Amino acid sequence: MTDTPSPETAGTAAEASTWPSEIRLSPDKSALTVTFEDGARFTLAAEYLRVESPSAEVQGHAPHQKVTVPGKRSVKIKELHPVGTYAIRPVFDDGHSTGIYAWPVLRTMGEEQEERFGAYLKALEEQGLSRD
User: Fold this and answer.
1) What does the pLDDT look like over 58-88, one tens digit per residue?
2) What single-letter DSSP state applies at residue 55?
3) Which residues contact 98 (CB under 8 A, 6 or more apart)?
4) What architecture (CATH level 2) is domain 7-124?
5) Whole-model pTM above 0.70?
6) CA pair distance 34, 25, nearest whole angstrom
7) Helix pair 103-111, 113-126: axis angle to 10 deg
């Protein structure tokens, strides 16, 4: 998925900063690179996208319901589907396909990647779980 809608419909400059100009799945399907209209670019590992999925299955319906998902180090993105003009829905090779990643969600995930993935690794350790 390399073509994304134009930010002309985004409205404000703040909205344009969360509008991707390119979304590219790596050849081995292990990462998604998202480039935004303002030049920000993030490479998000499939594992990170999977374990931080915005789906209710992972996030729950309240912060205390968030699930720590183990065993996803080798997960791949099997397919990418557009959701209107505002998001994508990846299908992972483990069958997970319910996360809808709106443009601002992808931007935030990119900006907070180090902190979020570090918190995930800490949660795995605290719960005696493994990435493998």
Assistant:
1) 999 988 899 999 999 999 999 999 999 999 9
2) S
3) 53, 55, 56, 57, 89
4) 2-Layer Sandwich (3.30)
5) yes
6) 9
7) 70
